[in-house]
Amino acid sequence: MHGHFVFPDDEEVFDIVGEWPEIQESGARVLTWRSDEGMFVLSYEAVTRSVRVRWSNVEGDALLDVYREGATRLTFISTPSTVGAQIDFSVGECAGVMEIDIFPRISVQDRLLFQ
Question: What local confidence, expressed as pLDDT, does residue 76 receive?
Answer without folding.
Answer: 98
